[in-house]
Design a protein that fits this description.
OB fold (Dihydrolipoamide Acetyltransferase, E2P), 2 domains, 7 strands, 34% strand
């Protein structure tokens, strides 16, 4: 076997292994984005989900003995679900805040391990106020 054949075989093996690695790393990892109603009424073959909604006012409860532990009610239209979260909370996490949570649904409650916030109301004033832009520099 000459050097050219060895190099060709090596390249083919490396490329094949690379594609197998990529394919195996992406299969079965998708987390569906569901409504609360779909989650509560549906039956699924997996245990991880994503939900979105607003934090119900007055529902945030931070544990006194462990400041990382928080519970709150996620509201989406008329549907609500209790969410448990045990990690550092985003700075913008507050009542009425729009959030996306990712985690597991167990015993009619949601146990999130990922919490993302989107509080557009904090920025809307800047976007709507013409005086907040320096139009001379544009």
């Amino acid at each position: 076997m000459n050097n050219r054949s060895k190099i060709t075989i090596t390249v083919v093996v490396v490329v094949t292994l690379f594609f197998i690695w990529i394919i195996s790393g992406t299969q079965g990892k998708e987390v569906p984005f569901l409504s609360i109603e779909e989650l509560v009424t549906g039956e699924y073959d997996q245990d991880r989900f994503r939900l979105g909604g607003n934090v119900q006012a007055g529902s945030i409860q931070i544990a006194e003995d462990d400041l990382l532990k928080v519970e709150f009610i996620l509201k989406q239209g008329e549907s609500i679900i209790k969410v448990h979260y045990y990690k550092t909370r985003p700075d913008l996490f507050a009542d009425y805040c729009e959030v996306i949570v990712e985690g597991e649904y167990r015993n009619n409650e949601f146990y999130a391990d990922n919490l993302m916030t989107k509080c557009a109301s904090r920025y809307e004033g800047d976007l709507r106020d013409k005086n907040s832009y320096n139009l001379d520099e544009i």
